[in-house]
């Protein structure tokens, strides 16, 4: 790649809005989607916001921010939202009604990275619909790039040729440093995504959006490795009780073998 600036790829997914309580359909084979509000996956929204902030802080030259979504045709709505927030270009890989597993998604993203000449991928650590949390790791493995997962803070070093990432781990925080190219997956505490105004949404309609289909990716294996047997709702929690004293509390805990 001739330019020394960052070319950031931000994958985004269209999911049921996080404020909506999912409902299982009558046949218990899937989540009900009819008449349900969809929006951008929250972790992906954070990833886009971080890409925009890197560009705005100007501590590293950013050549382009490219948003990509792999999903149904309606996914172009969340891509327009990304463009309205500040992404330069976008790509929709129209998968129709086909549900893709993380491995297939990672393979598509690998081809897009190579096509775009990207040297930095910032993506949500997981989607809130399947909670797989492994697409970023698979992508890094296929590209043979270093990875920094669960990012809570991202800092540019050496003019953007190297990045320092603070990761959230079980014991607290871990700080890692890696040079480009790099895959980063984002956690919730990284930032607070911005809102987008109607005027910017209207302007976004003029920004370029490439449209591809799954057939455009040669030798892509879409075979599912997992078989969904049944979808059931979790058991409702039993109501709590009030106790009249500390002694009664302790006795109840002992009866429940909690202490």
Automatic annotation (TrEMBL):
CC terms in the record's Gene Ontology section: mitochondrial matrix
Transmembrane segments: none
Cofactor: FAD; AMP
UniProt cross-references to Pfam families, sorted A to Z: ETF
Electron transfer flavoprotein alpha/beta-subunit N-terminal domain residues: 28-221
Entry-linked PROSITE patterns: ETF_BETA
Keywords for the protein's UniProt record, in alphabetical order: Electron transport, Mitochondrion, Transport
Subcellular location field: Mitochondrion matrix
Biological process, per Gene Ontology: amino acid catabolic process; fatty acid beta-oxidation using acyl-CoA dehydrogenase
Details of cofactor binding: Binds 1 FAD per dimer. Binds 1 AMP per subunit.
Family of this protein: Belongs to the ETF beta-subunit/FixA family.
Function (record text): The electron transfer flavoprotein serves as a specific electron acceptor for several dehydrogenases, including five acyl-CoA dehydrogenases, glutaryl-CoA and sarcosine dehydrogenase. It transfers the electrons to the main mitochondrial respiratory chain via ETF-ubiquinone oxidoreductase (ETF dehydrogenase).
Subunit description: Heterodimer of an alpha and a beta subunit.
Name of this protein: Probable electron transfer flavoprotein subunit beta
Source organism per UniProt: Zygosaccharomyces mellis
